[in-house]
Design a protein that fits this description.
Mean pLDDT is 82; it is low at 401-436. Helix content is 80%, strand content 0%. The chain has 436 residues and is mainly α. The N and C termini lie far apart (83 Å).
Length: 436
């Protein structure tokens, strides 16, 4: 009996990933690192005898991984939370993107690259990886922290800005002026289309789901949720937007329904399964030979990416009014590149305006920064405390390092703290009465 190659490949990917991640957990290393190492082992550039045979099919599974990761994020990140961190997220994202495009261009010039190579490098470095950050936050258990919600707000704004960035790079690559009517029309269309999705979703979806949930069992609710997610993904790609954006929007719409917690628990296995394949696929793109050939550029750009993205994001958060500690946590969380960077690099190669080595370097830098991300997030709070001690006291007060307890907490955290204090006072009062 003939067994399809896709099943053999999936068995190999999951088997190797399970073994390597088990070792990583024993060594107290991030699970994402295990997935990337597993990808290198089963990838086409490493002669281990475990090479995946159907790479296009793996890319499809990896795309599903991005979709379910973003859908799950939307289920936890409601539209109201997005509005709450919208101002800080937008300000931080816009400053980071502008600074990274400029700094990336300058870094390319230092290495003697062409103008278009430098410009595309700036675009590649400007967008952080949502999927990598979600996984790191999951592992570290910080998704409910206020700084994490601001980071998610930054990432959503970055995804929207990335659409406009693709338009600009396409026009520049075609020899046209970057600021033209096409960019204005794309921006207007983006606002109108995405806004209409939210509006229609919040009007129609909760009532529909409330009605069907009365009759839907666990299996039916799973099918219905995945169908709604994939339908908006199809619509998003039809309008030439990212599938991840469509998945996130549908997740945030369903997060406002009464069945959001049930849906979230049902989607978790799908997120874990296909999310693992996505991270393995990132490792599969890494060519060890390329590390030897371009090691100087890869090392320089990797260090540059971590430092420049941390500083630019931190500056954006500070300007948006965040205290030093939270700004440092936000900045160090965003110090990586990922899936959208591959799209920008591929666009440049497709247009024939950038060097072929740019995609190889992009993949290598993505793998290195992915590996570093959990450590940067884990030690960001400790680093902010060290930074607070070494900066001048006058500057520290201006940045908010001496802010009160309420300023260090999110709005709901302040409410929770006050409620806890109130409850404690009631218990103390009862204790005194009992003693009397």
């Amino acid at each position: 009996m003939h067994l399809p190659e896709q099943i053999t490949d999936l068995a190999m990917i999951l088997g190797v990933a399970a073994i390597v991640t088990f070792v990583c957990q024993k060594l107290r290393q991030p699970v994402v690192l295990g997935y990337i190492i597993a990808g290198v082992i089963v990838g086409p550039y490493t002669p281990t005898g475990l090479t995946v045979s159907d790479l296009p099919n793996v890319k499809v599974w990896a795309e599903l991984g991005v979709i379910f990761l973003m859908f799950s994020l939307g289920l936890e990140f409601t539209f109201h939370k997005l509005l709450r961190v919208g101002k800080v997220g937008a300000g931080t994202a816009l400053l980071e993107v502008v600074m990274m495009v400029a700094l990336g261009y300058a870094a390319g010039r230092l290495m003697g690259w062409t103008s278009l190579d430098c410009l595309f490098l700036g675009g590649i470095l400007s967008i952080s990886s949502t999927t990598i950050i979600i996984k790191a936050f999951d592992e570290l258990g910080v998704k409910t922290k206020y700084f994490a919600e601001i980071v998610f707000g930054v990432l959503i704004v970055e995804d929207l800005v990335a659409i406009l960035l693709l338009v600009v790079l396409t026009t520049v690559g075609g020899g046209e002026a970057p600021l033209n009517f096409g960019l204005v029309w794309t921006t207007l269309k983006l606002v109108l289309i995405v806004g209409s999705w939210f509006l229609l979703g919040y009007v129609l979806t909760p009532s529909f789901l409330k009605y069907t949930a009365k009759f839907a069992n666990r299996e039916t609710l799973t099918i219905l949720s995945v169908a709604l997610c994939l339908m908006l993904v199809v619509v998003a790609t039809h309008f030439e937007y990212s599938a991840a954006l469509g998945a996130f929007i549908m997740g945030s719409i369903l997060a406002e329904t009464s069945e959001s917690h049930r849906i979230e628990s049902l989607i978790q296995p799908l997120k874990d399964l296909f999310g693992a394949v996505f991270f393995v696929s990132v490792g599969m793109m890494l060519d060890p030979q390329a590390l030897v050939t371009h090691w100087k550029a890869i090392l320089f750009i990797s260090i540059f990416t971590v430092l420049a993205k941390s500083i630019s994001s931190c500056m954006g958060a500070l300007i948006a009014g965040q205290p030093l500690k939270r700004a440092v946590q936000i900045g160090m969380s965003l110090a990586q590149i990922g899936e959208f960077s591959f799209i920008i690099a591929t666009l440049g190669i497709t247009l024939g305006v950038v060097s072929d080595f740019l995609f190889t370097i992009t993949v290598a830098v993505s793998v290195i920064t992915t590996f570093l991300t959990p450590y940067l997030i884990r030690y960001s709070e400790a680093f902010s405390e060290v930074l607070a001690k070494v900066i001048p006291e006058s500057l520290g007060r201006r940045l908010g390092k001496n802010a009160g307890e309420a300023a260090q907490l999110g709005p709901w955290e302040v409410h929770t703290t006050r409620l806890t204090l109130h409850q404690n006072s009631i218990v103390a009062g009862k204790t005194i009465l009992d003693l009397q």
